[in-house]
């Protein structure tokens, strides 16, 4: 069956990019993580909340953070110029995962820097249980500060840039190059952070190879 690319793109917009004004109205205290995107050359600011965030260490010892959202696509307008876009009740859910790898940790009290100290990768894909070849990946870098604790780690991305790096299946980029910022509190869990990242990388490799 041929996929409805236009419909899937609309669903991605509603799921991935919620107008900033609506995000504020909904409030950010009910979720552990939030990121905002400011598309280059556009006035609209988009926001995304994530229901889970984990902090861990990669094999090379670097700090890493993984944000995950498995919400079903639905709700609200994709931009200020568009009317409300509602996802079909039969639409396959999408997983979004953001991987932030800290390349170097800022000194205590350091809040700003012109140099990027974190690589950022944003994955959008079909839920693994549903299969399919839909995949969208954004990559970039930014400056992030961390506030480590015994059970959790606070992270703030103060400035960063992302751009589309891969698109497969019916998912089409609705954002383009964008600035990224935001903050979140991640649960310290090495195993879970590594597991989620490995799943995303494995799925990306599988879709890219056409399997």
What would a concise description of this structure say?
This protein is of the alpha+beta class and 211 residues long. It has helices spanning 5-16, 20-26, 190-208; strands at 18-19, 33-39, 46-50, 52-57, 63-69, 94-102, 118-126, 135-148, 152-168, 178-188.
Textual characterization of the structure:
The protein is α+β, with helices and mostly antiparallel strands. It has one domain (5-208). 18% of the residues lie in helices and 41% in strands. It has three helices and ten strands. It has helices spanning 5-16, 20-26, 190-208; strands at 18-19, 33-39, 46-50, 52-57, 63-69, 94-102, 118-126, 135-148, 152-168, 178-188. Strands 4-5-6-7-8-9-10 form a seven-stranded mixed barrel. The longest helix has 19 residues, at 190-208. The radius of gyration is 17 Å and the shape is globular.
